[in-house]
Amino acid sequence: MLVKRAEQAMVRTKSAVLKSAGLSPSQYVALYELDQQSGITAATLARACLVTPQAMMILLKTMEQQGLITRSSHPRHPNVLELHMTEVGREALQAARERVDPIERRVFGVFSPKDMAAFREFLSRFIEAFEQK
Predict the structure, then answer these.
(1) Which helix (H) or strand (E) holds 85?
(2) What is the tens place of the pLDDT at every residue in 53-97?
(3) pTM
(4) Helical segments of the chain, H only
(5) So what's the pLDDT on residue 133?
(6) Long-range interactions of 98-105: CB distance < 8 A, separation 24+
(7) Which domains are assigned to the chain?
(8) Of all residues in the chain, what percent carry a pLDDT higher than 70?
(9) Residues 6+ apart with CB under 8 A from 103
(10) Can you tell me the distance from the alpha carbon of 45 to that of 83, in angstroms, rounded to the nearest whole number?
C-alpha cells in the first residue's frame, strides 16, 4: 500500500502542475520520450511509456490535433510512420519541465546520495521480485 500511496501522491502533484502547462501526465511522458528518441514509431513509444499500442494511438491523435507532434513516413519504409515533436511540442515540454523539475528536486532532495543509491537498489529488487516466475 505504501508504494501505491507514493505513486498517487506523485501523480496528483505532477498532474496539477502539468495541467497548468496544458499537458496531461501521459502527454508529458510521451513528449519526454520523443525528446530522447525523435523519429521513433508509435509502437516503440507505447513500450517506452508502458501503455498499450491502442492507448498510444488515442494519445497521439490528440497530440497531433494539438500540434504537439507530427507523423511522417519513414524514408526507406513508407508504411512506417515516424513521430516527431513540433516546436509547439518542444515549448510545451519545456514549460512542463519548468514545473515538474522543482518538484522532483524537492522530493529527491530530502535524500542523501547514499539514501538515493539504497532507494534505487530497493526499488530494483522490488521490481525483480515481481518479475520472477
Answers:
(1) strand 81-85
(2) 999 999 999 999 999 999 987 777 777 789 999 999 999 999 999
(3) 0.85
(4) 2-20, 25-36, 42-49, 53-65, 87-108, 113-131
(5) 76
(6) 98/21, 99/17, 99/18, 99/20, 99/21, 100/14, 100/17, 100/18, 100/28, 103/13, 103/14, 103/17
(7) 2-131 (1.10.10.10)
(8) 100
(9) 13, 14, 17
(10) 9
CB neighbours of residue 110 within 10 Å = 7
Rounded Cα–Cα distance for residues 133 and 129 (Å): 9
Weakest mean pLDDT among 31-45, 49-63, 70-84, 106-120: 70-84
Find out whether 46 and 52 touch, Cβ atoms under 8 Å: yes
Cα–Cα distance measured from residue 69 to residue 91, given in angstroms and rounded to the nearest whole number: 12
Helical axes 2-20 vs 87-108, angle rounded to 10°:
140
User: What is the residue whose three cell numbers read 518479475?
Assistant: 131
- Nearest CA to 107 out of 115, 50, 94 is that of 115
